């Protein structure tokens, strides 16, 4: 799968019921599992035990899950449910009609510990041929391989010329998205505002936000 070493192959089918039976899953989410997913395969495990890699400080294993879909969409809450239930970092490969999307979220240990994880926003590729998926092993330790998987999937959103960490890149991208929302909301306020003095105030704030966005 995606040209990963044979030593990483796991190829185990996981019954989708495992992710919603005996768990606090809403009836709506259970319905999504049933209707949108055909089958889930645990395809690969990237770890010190399966590759010639040094141990990571924050990432112990990277799991590659292939999810065969019944339709050309999957509710993101399904991926989040799986991610929360598995204490390892995951790259999801969604397959429909022989085309693939790679999905992943920045995932870090929660402050509470106990193998709990905080799952951030998801990044994903377009629908591609399997051979076109931008997933290449790059790095000497498991942390770096995971970081590069996230950057490969996110592409332009996390590209930087600075030597910033993955967490810093994610935070910068989150701030960029937040600023874009604030700018759109302010633009709408300016269009609706009738009083000139308030328009001036709003435009000044808009200019400030745009400048911050440009500098990110």
- Structural class by SSE content: alpha+beta
Quaternary structure:
single chain
Rg from alpha-carbon coordinates: 20 Å
Instruction: For the largest sheet, list the strands in their spatial order.
Output: 1-2-3-4-5-6
Using the alpha-carbon principal axes, give the shape. Answer: globular
Low-confidence stretches: none
Q: How far is the first residue's CA from the last residue's CA?
A: 36 Å
Helices and strands, in order, run as EHEEHEEEHHH
Q: What percent strand?
A: 15-25%
Can you count the beta strands? 6
Number of helices: 5
| Helical residues, percent | 25-40%
Average predicted local confidence, pLDDT? 91
Largest sheet: 6 strands, mixed
Can you tag this structure with a few keywords?
single chain, 216 residues, alpha+beta, 6-stranded mixed β-sheet, 5 helices
Report what the structure shows.
With 216 residues, this protein is α+β, with helices and mostly antiparallel strands. It is 37% helix and 25% strand. The protein is built from five helices and six strands, in the order E-H-E-E-H-E-E-E-H-H-H. A six-stranded mixed beta sheet has the order 1-2-3-4-5-6, sandwiched between helices. Strand 5 (99-109) and strand 6 form a beta hairpin. Helix 4 runs antiparallel to helix 5. The radius of gyration is 20 Å and the shape is globular. The mean pLDDT is 91.
Describe the SSE topology.
Elements (H helix, E strand, L loop, with lengths): L8 E6 L12 H10 E11 L13 E9 L6 H10 L3 E8 L2 E11 L7 E8 L17 H13 L11 H27 L3 H20 L1
Parallel strand pairs: 3-4
Antiparallel strand pairs: 1-2, 2-3, 4-5, 5-6
């Amino acid at each position: 799968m995606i040209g990963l070493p044979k030593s990483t192959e796991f190829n185990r089918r996981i019954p989708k019921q495992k992710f919603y039976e005996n768990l606090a899953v809403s009836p709506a989410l259970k319905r999504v599992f049933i209707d949108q997913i055909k089958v889930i395969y645990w395809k690969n495990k990237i770890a010190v035990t399966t590759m010639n890699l040094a141990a990571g400080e924050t990432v112990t294993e990277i799991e590659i899950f292939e999810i065969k879909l019944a339709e050309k969409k999957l509710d993101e809450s399904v991926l989040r449910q799986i991610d929360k239930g598995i204490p390892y970092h995951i790259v999801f490969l969604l397959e429909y009609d022989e085309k693939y999307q790679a999905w992943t979220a920045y995932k870090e240990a929660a402050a509470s510990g106990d193998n709990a994880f905080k799952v951030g926003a998801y990044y994903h590729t377009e629908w591609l041929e399997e051979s076109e998926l931008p997933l290449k092993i790059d790095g000497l330790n498991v942390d770096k391989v995971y970081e590069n998987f996230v950057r490969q999937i996110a592409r332009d959103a996390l590209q930087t010329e600075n030597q910033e960490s993955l967490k810093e890149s994610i935070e910068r991208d989150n701030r960029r998205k937040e600023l874009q929302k604030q700018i759109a909301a302010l633009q709408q306020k300016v269009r609706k505002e009738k009083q000139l003095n308030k328009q001036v105030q709003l435009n000044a704030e808009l200019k400030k936000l745009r400048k911050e966005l440009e500098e990110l």
